Amino acid sequence: MRRISSRNAITAIFAIAVLSLVSACSSSIKDTSATGKITADTTGTVRVLMEGVPDTDVVKGLLAEFNKEYPKVDVMIEPIAYDQIRDKIVASFQASDPTYDLAIIDNPWMGDFARAGFLKPLDDLISATSGYDYEDFAAPLRAIGEVDGKVYGVPFYNYGLGLIYRSDLITTEPITLDELAATAKKLNSSARAGIAMQPQTGYKAFEEWGNYLFAAGGSIYGGDGKVHLNTLEAKKALNTYIAMYKSSAPKNSLNWAFDEALRSVSSGKSAMMVSYNWMLPTLNKVGGVSGDLAGKFKLATMPGGKQVLGSWDWAIPANSKVSDAAWAFISWITSKAGEAKRVSAGGAPARIGVLSDPAVSSTGGGADYYATVTKILANAEPLCRGSNCDEMITAVGTELNAAVAGLKSVDKALASAEEQANKIQTP
Amino acid sequence: MSFRLRMMGPLIMIFLAAIGYPLLSSFALSLTNYKITQRNATKFVGLAQYKDVLQDRSYWSSLTVTLIFIITAVILELAIGLAIAMALQNQKRFRNFTRSFLLTPMFVTPIAVGLMFRFLLNDQLGVIPALLNKIGINYDFFGPSRAIYSIVAIDVWQWTPFMVLLLLAGLESLSKQPFEAARVDGASPFYTFRRVTLPMLAPILTVAVLIRSLDASKVFEYVYAITRGGPGTQTQTIQYFTYKTGIQFYRLGQASAMSYLLLLIVISIVVVLFHRIEKVRAME
Prior knowledge:
The complex is a heterodimer of chains A (427) and B (284). In chain A, 46% of the residues lie in helices and 13% in strands. Chain A has 427 residues and is α/β, with parallel strands linked by helices. Chain A folds into two domains: 31-159 and 310-368, D-Maltodextrin-Binding Protein, domain 2, CATH 3.40.190; 161-308 and 387-425, D-Maltodextrin-Binding Protein, domain 2. In chain A, the strands form four sheets. In chain A, strands 2-1-3-11-6 form a five-stranded mixed sheet, sandwiched between helices. A three-stranded antiparallel sheet of chain A has the order 8-7-9. The termini of chain A are far apart. The model of chain A is unreliable at 1-7 and 9-34 (pLDDT under 50). Chain B is mainly alpha-helical and 284 residues long. Chain B has a domain at 64-246: MetI-like fold (Orthogonal Bundle). Chain B is 74% helix and 0% strand. The radius of gyration of chain B is 23 Å and the shape is globular. The interface between A and B is medium-sized, with 36 and 32 residues.
């Protein structure tokens, strides 16, 4: 008995020694309050996994300016392909020693991650940050980061969709779904398709068709909070979508997604597409992807005025050991001044205030573009709210694609989509 | 413990650690409703996951897609592989060069092959659609009822060399005497192939088909890189469906049950097949 006690004592001493050593090694990390009162001498290394896209490059380009205000916070950005982000951050969320101290969250993941306890609520941090003006973020974007009455994500940039069209071919923007279909059909020729569509099974099909649904006067959720896709509006939207695919989209484009549609429009082989609003400056950039067509593209809201919205949000993992340093960075990059710098450098906006800032609107897409983005962000809705969004979106998108492919009737596809979506989202 | 058992000890331990533990762990998982985003609500549900999977139409439809893929791909690989192997057997010059060149596709990782064909068959960028267009053919490689056969064609391109490798080794190991006897008796080449080559090669053919079928049942990369299961669910193979359930939708418990059911089906087929082979061999 005495011998066992001695062993325990030695083990305890050893453990204390190891813990002391570990804490000494990590003394460079200072995480004092996590209340939002972040001082300029906040210290820590913030590791963040981000998608390898231009918006990430913009953020990287601003790190030197951030370090002028917070010289002791080292932000290490790891760019990676979209497909790998979620698996890596989920693994990090569950580790006792996380790989990432700050995360960017795609909107379909927000509900699951927040309810799983993976993310830290940010309400206290937001309210303790003076002059932050959280309400300035577009309301639909704010709603994505709010789960069960708490804020888990601060908008990073928007993925609002809109209609991108060739202004030299289209003089009057279509304002109804029928007008959109008629315009696409009229512009369709052997040399150029009327519209480049993205009916690829899963996310893409639902993301694009969702805009048609809104344009037909429909909605994804009913007043009872359930998914309602087996409706007259949804049927009209899907019938129009299929008719447009058959009459006005490029041949053999059933498997097309974002890249293919962009390539088709930028090369002049399609006259318009439904895509992310921030593609407009890219398409109009002189010497960019569109070649001689640069400057000929315009952005409009979807017919009916409402569109599908996506977003990336900044969030702090619940297991982050440097949440003060992480919030120092989030609050700096998403502050009014930080957002103005980011958007001026080519980033997609999330705050409404910045869109009317003359210093910002004189850059990038120009005042007209930012005015349309303001309208897009004012009337937009994500494809899914709540839990199991990835699964719900995939299930609906698979049914829509099957209908476009002619493997299912419109009625059967929508009935099945509604049934599956409600089953998936039932707790 | 006998010397023989002691010598086997390290192998058994490695086997238990590397294969036994993951198998047992995933089996335990399949008896729970484990979901990555709801870990606190995990509970033991016994065989309920298995029952759910068996009642899931998507599981059976994915299994059917996989079966169509395996049968089509393996038959084509076997036929083309055997033809190439027989041609190579008679080759006199540049034998090593031809054989090395033919084996190249096998050494490319399947995800890279998937991405390569995604672009090669792409209507906007691909060389193949462009060449077909020049001769007036417009073919949608990933259209309804076609995408699965495009995936099969990609598999045939990559894995026929494996068949060639196995069958060539088999052909070269066959005794020459029966062939000489057939030639002396005036048998035609086709008769020799049907009555001498095929029966003598049967054990190798069986093993080749078995290995390729098991390997083809794991098809995932081409689907992931190119079609994502579409159009609709026409290319949704069982591995892609399991991946979606477990990794994309977080339901690891259910995905484990799916994998175990697949394992059970595959083992049953293999056991029946081996039993029949043994029976035929015993009769001979």
